[in-house]
Amino acid sequence: MIEFDKLTKVFRNVVAVSELSLNVDDAEVFGLLGPNGAGKTTTLMMLCSILKPSSGTIRVDHIDVRTEPDKVRSRLGIAFQEPALDSRLTVERNLEFHADACRLPRDQKKQRIKEVLTYLEMWDSRTQKAGKLSGGMKKKVEDAKLFIQEPPVAIFDEPTAYLDVTSRLKVWKRIESLKEQGSTVILATNMMDEAERLSDRLAILSKGKLAVEGTPATLKDALPRGDVIEILIGGDVQTALDHLNKIPEVKEIIPLKPPNKLRIYISYAETNLPVIIETLVRHGLRVDNVVVKEPSLDDVFLHYTGETL
Amino acid sequence: MDGVRVVLERDVRTFFMNFYAIGFRNIVVVLDTVIFAFILSAAVRPGAVGNMTYLQFFALGSLVVSIFWASYNIGRDVYWDRESGFLNYLMSLPISRTEIIVGRSFGGSFRAIMTALPLYVLAAILVPTTALNILESLAVLFVFALGLCGLGITAALSVRDETRARLLNTFISLVLIRSSTALYPIVAMPVWLQVGTRLNPVTYASDSIRSVTVYSPQAVIPGFDISIVLIFAGVASVLGSWLFSRMIEGGPAE
Questions:
Q1: Does the residue B242 lie in any domain?
Q2: What part of A 8-47 touches B (C-beta under 8 Å)?
Q3: Is residue B254 part of a domain?
């Protein structure tokens, strides 16, 4: 179990993380979501004892990160957002370095490196220098470190950034198997589909603070804004906004891209859809496309972070 | 100590991937000795550099200069590790901070010794020496290199800007080498510079290397010079370790 208790980090006058309290259970995938600058990476850096908290505590299996950082680090591994590879060494040497640093037995080391690189379709690139790899390949090597290490606590910071669809699915599957083997996984991501697919529970951080925490399903159910209608209109967007906002059932409207697309949060979408279309048409606007949706994790994210699309 | 081995191994591997740099560095030193020191030795009056010629004096001093560059450069590696995020990765591993700094210092010293090793061929041609003298000399240089690694890491972690780091390194190297007895004798210096020279650890490393490398039946171990080298190594290593564990703390936020 990982316990964050009133964790705070201040850089000079900037509060990066403020009074964060969270519990992550054993063998669960815990998603950490938040816009850029929300404090996700800072929180993970403190968990790995790379940064010292300004106040508050983190305990991993009841061991305090501040007082026994070496003991905590022996239980965890992190795959960084920006791959941390020695560009002068080959892919294989980088992974051997990681395996050696994590005290993996020699026989397991060779075998696991081969198995993981083959799985990620990187075996043929093992002799290439890390500095010569593409962004996606570097990311796969970064993720491979944890697949080889299989630590009790595996921390992934944006594990599928730069990856193609096939590689992304492979990494997801591997993260799922880490969990099945008993590892606790912390997943920091900005990809809602990734968080929704992998996370048992998740927390959304906003401006360094915990905005909300729960399972993806409970967070969606708890949204106060009801159903979602996405509508593509022809004509003046401001006119549409003015008239649609007068409909009592409409709770919120967010303009999307392209600029003539609107996301409307409304109760009973299917019942109220004709009212919306009728209102737009009556004011000389064209309705080009309509999609009625269940609220997604995107909506949860937008609701709790106050971000707009 | 497993962590030290892992960190050291990385430095050894990356060192041998950069073989041409070692070769080039040694060619420069050999050319310096063969051309510059050879010509200058005609202008140096006999006895000015003790009981050796200026050519011999320069060749042995070059060993110290070579060690200086090679080991001090570990600081540059640490700087780049920090800039590239690799340092954060190192610190996330189950390796203690002390193991990291000791591993890097040993790695830097190993690199330095390997860089200077071919120059002993030239030294052996120019001065009377034995295998034992060379071993003693290498031991002193290794300790000195540990101190330089500490100094290089301290300098690298003191600045966050590449240009400033480069300027600081050039300044420190210039001051320490030029105000020492590595390349010219203290008697040739103005009095004000002699004061600085006597406070400079490079002076004591150079003097002790000249004493231990040259074979002489009446040779005595230069205890004072070696003690200063040891003190320098201890202080610089502790300073480097302290700064390493302190400066990394304020690492980058998101």
A1: yes
A2: 9, 11, 14, 16, 36-42, 45
A3: no
Which class is domain A223-305?
alpha beta
Touching B: A residues 55-74, CB under 8 Å: 70, 73-74
Residue B35: Cβ within 10 Å count: 10
How many Cβ contacts (< 8 angstroms) between chains A and B? 78
Tell me the nearest-neighbour CA distance from A257 into chain B, angstroms: 27
Instruction: Tell which wins on pLDDT, A255 or A151.
Output: A151
Write down the pTM of the prediction. 0.83
Q: CB A42 to CB B253 under 8 A?
A: yes
DSSP sequence for B80-137? HHHHHTHHHHHHHSSS-HHHHHHHHHHHHHHHHHHHHTTHHHHHHHHS---HHHHHHH
pLDDT value at residue B254: 34
pLDDT in tens, A237-268: 889 999 998 988 888 888 887 778 898 888 78
Cβ contact, residue pair B91, A50, below 8 Å: yes
Choose among B99, B72, B85: nearest CA to B5: B99
Per the structure, the complete domain to which residue B166 belongs is given by 2-248
Tally of domains in chain B: 1
Nearest CA to CA, how far is A39 from chain B (Å)? 7
Q: Let me know if domain A2-219 sits in CATH 3.40.50.2000.
A: no
Q: DSSP characters for A25-90?
A: -TT-EEEEE--TTSSHHHHHHHHTTSS--SEEEEEETTEETTT-HHHHHTTEEEE-SS----TTSB
Section A65-69 average pLDDT: 90
Q: CA of A274, closest CA in chain B: separation in Å?
A: 45
Instruction: Verify whether the Cβ–Cβ distance B94 to A74 is below 8 Å.
Output: yes
Kind and range of the H or E run holding A255: strand A250-256
